[in-house]
Design goal:
By secondary structure, the protein is mainly α. It has helices spanning 4-24, 30-45, 57-62, 67-72, 84-106, 115-119, 121-144.
Length: 145
């Protein structure tokens, strides 16, 4: 199993290759590409399949927020599936955001404006695609090594 550092190297190298080929045929705006790259790095550094292991660097970086996720998942289980891993982590983050928003509502704190999500669905899709590509590369690296 590759180390966290080896996963970072593999994903960053793949990012450079993907960007090289993208330059040959750009089809996104700069903002959309930036959001996809942000999602890719978010999926590589924090929201990666190793979030299912409490001892992993991503889980340690995520801290207490990800503790329930590590307790619900067994290492190399659903979290390491090329599709369901991404879906479960995104659903978990949405659940956390929903709980925090509900808590803010109960405590009468200001609630963040989410109209960006409703008015920019393609940009949100690009964020998810970036996380998804990082997840696929992580699981492929695990399978190869």
């Amino acid at each position: 199993m590759p180390s966290y550092t080896n996963h970072l190297i593999a994903n960053f190298a793949a990012a450079l290759i993907l960007l090289f080929f993208y330059q040959k045929n750009p089809f996104l705006t700069d903002t959309q590409l930036g959001i996809a790259i942000f999602g890719y790095f978010l999926g590589t550094i924090v929201l990666n399949p190793d979030l299912d292991s409490a001892k992993s660097k991503p889980a340690q970086k995520c801290g207490i927020i990800c503790k329930p996720y590590t307790m619900m998942s067994k290492h190399r289980g659903t979290s390491h599936h090329w599709l369901w891993g991404t879906v479960t982590r995104i659903m978990y983050i949405l659940l956390i955001i929903g709980l925090l928003t509900g808590l803010a509502f109960v405590l009468k704190l200001p609630i963040p404006d989410i109209t960006f999500i409703l008015t920019h669905p393609f940009e949100i899709l690009m964020l998810i695609v970036g996380i998804f590509i990082a997840n696929v590369l992580h699981t492929a690296t695990d399978a190869i090594f």
